[in-house]
Specification:
This protein has one domain: 2,3-Dihydroxybiphenyl 1,2-Dioxygenase, domain 1 (Roll), CATH 3.10.180. The chain is about 10% helix and about 45% strand. It has one helix and six strands, in the order βββαβββ. The chain has a six-stranded mixed β-sheet with strand order 1-2-3-6-5-4. The longest helix is centred in the middle third of the chain and has 10 residues. The protein is globular, with a radius of gyration of 14 Å. The mean pLDDT is about 85.
């Protein structure tokens, strides 16, 4: 069973998901964990800013079939981060 919590601050929502330790406790950091950041900001501009500062994206901004546009990166410690914005509303 997955467990998650959602935190909101201004235009950003961060979703934290629990690691179920399925890949063991003695492993590299960042495995089994992804941080999702939901924002109303322009994700294309955010991705561009990250690249301009020397960051590398795991994938470029992409429209997803579930109504969001997102991109991902991996921080220097190996943690996976997805930054997303809604492209459609129900």
């Amino acid at each position: 069973m997955s467990v998650a919590a959602s935190l909101e601050a201004g235009a950003v929502t961060i979703i934290l998901g629990q690691d179920d330790w399925a890949q063991g406790r003695d492993r590299d950091e960042g495995i089994g964990f992804r941080l999702y950041c939901l924002t109303a900001q322009d994700v294309d501009q955010l991705a561009s800013d990250i690249r301009a500062r020397g960051g590398t994206l795991a994938w470029e901004p992409t429209d997803q079939p579930w109504g969001s546009r997102d991109f991902a990166l991996v921080d220097p410690d190996g943690f996976k981060i997805t930054i997303s914005t809604e492209t459609t509303s129900d």
